[in-house]
């Protein structure tokens, strides 16, 4: 009995000691969290933002590397993650130009005030898209204005000679300096990478299944396509990551050419929607019909 009682006493003492240690650790953890984030009560910091708030700072020197990235309100977290991946994997002197809409400016400024990132916020003027995208009221939600921001790089950065454009869903795992230093062939306005694996680039070709080559997007039976000298099985490119030579871009009037095709596409959609749905009023009908001769 004596031995059994001694064992019980030892067991009780061990449990008490464990509880004391656990209690102290919890108190220390609570103090640590308060020191790390003293503003939690007055100004909540989102989980994806805390990585920028550490005291560790990298000295960034050299020529500035302009990076343009879009920030839709519903994808601010993705934009932040993309910027974080660049910031953490490079010592380059990166300057972010964040293209967003009015509704997102306050949130962006609040967050960016807590970082040491070099940046400027560019409010995308929707008037620039007037007549260039479909205006069917039933499809307004489907049109994402910032999708077209990449077409207007010289407008955002008129003084820059070279710029990197990234979509908000990109994660950079290497040094952004290497991408910026990519050579662009003489006479080319931008350099893209082949997109042979991305699911976003895949299309459906009747009789051929899923494809991510140009045959999924172009009719190679047409003479105009044949004259381009493109191979049907060549992988398409990724428009979400590219380096642009803005000097060449402006000389070739790339933005104007893109606007021309945007307008033509919007007019074609207008005409097709009227014939398919018949939902347009008489004013829209007349407007669509006035465009028809130019599209034929």
Write the layout of secondary structure elements.
Blueprint: H1 2-36, E1 61-71, H2 76-88, E2 92-100, H3 105-112, E3 118-123, H4 153-156, E4 162-166, H5 176-180, E5 190-194, E6 203-205, E7 209-211, H6 223-226, E8 237-245, H7 246-251, H8 254-277, H9 282-295
Helix pairs in contact: 8-9
Question: What do you see in this structure?
Answer:
- The protein is of the alpha/beta class and 296 residues long.
- The protein is built from nine helices and eight strands.
- The strands form two sheets. The protein has a six-stranded mixed sheet.
- Helix 8 crosses helix 9.
- It is globular.
- The chain starts with a helix and ends with a helix.
- The C terminus is likely disordered.
* Helix-strand pattern: HEHEHEHEHEEEHEHHH
Kindly state the number of beta strands: 8
Q: What portion of the residues fall into strands of 2 or more residues?
A: 15-25%
> In terms of structural class, how would the helical and strand content be classed?
alpha/beta
Helix content: 25-40%
Distance N to C terminus: 104 Å
Number of helices: 9
Assign an overall shape. Answer: globular
Major sheet attributes: 6 strands, mixed
With strands numbered from the N-terminus, the spatial order across the biggest sheet is 3-2-1-4-8-5
Mean model confidence by pLDDT = 74
Low-confidence stretches: 32-56, 199-210, 291-296
Radius of gyration: 28 Å
């Amino acid at each position: 009995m004596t031995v059994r009682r001694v064992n019980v006493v030892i067991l009780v003492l061990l449990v008490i000691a464990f509880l004391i240690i656990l209690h102290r650790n919890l108190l220390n953890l609570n103090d640590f969290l308060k020191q790390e984030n003293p503003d939690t009560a007055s100004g909540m910091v989102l989980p994806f933002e805390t990585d920028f708030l550490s005291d560790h700072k990298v000295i960034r020197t050299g020529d500035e590397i302009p990076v343009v990235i879009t920030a839709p309100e519903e994808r601010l977290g993705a934009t932040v993650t993309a910027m974080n991946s660049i910031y953490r994997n490079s010592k380059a002197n990166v300057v972010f130009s964040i293209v967003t809409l009015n509704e997102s400016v306050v949130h962006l400024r609040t967050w960016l005030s807590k970082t040491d990132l070099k940046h400027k916020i560019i409010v995308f003027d929707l008037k620039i898209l007037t007549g260039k995208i479909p205006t069917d009221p039933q499809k307004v939600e489907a049109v994402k204005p910032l999708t077209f921001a990449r077409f207007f790089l010289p407008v955002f950065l008129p003084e820059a000679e070279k710029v990197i454009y990234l979509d908000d869903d990109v994660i950079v795992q290497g040094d952004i300096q290497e991408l910026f230093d990519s050579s662009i062939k003489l006479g080319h306005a931008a350099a893209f990478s082949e997109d042979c694996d991305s699911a976003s680039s895949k299309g459906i070709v009747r009789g051929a299944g899923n494809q991510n080559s140009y045959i999924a997007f172009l009719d190679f039976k047409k003479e105009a396509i044949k004259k381009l000298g493109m191979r049907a099985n060549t992988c398409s490119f990724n428009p979400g990551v590219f380096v642009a030579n803005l000097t060449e871009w402006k000389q070739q009037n790339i933005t104007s050419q893109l606007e021309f095709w945007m307008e033509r596409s919007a007019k074609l959609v207008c005409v097709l929607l009227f014939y398919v749905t018949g939902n347009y009023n008489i004013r829209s009908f007349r407007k669509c019909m006035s465009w028809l001769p130019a599209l034929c």
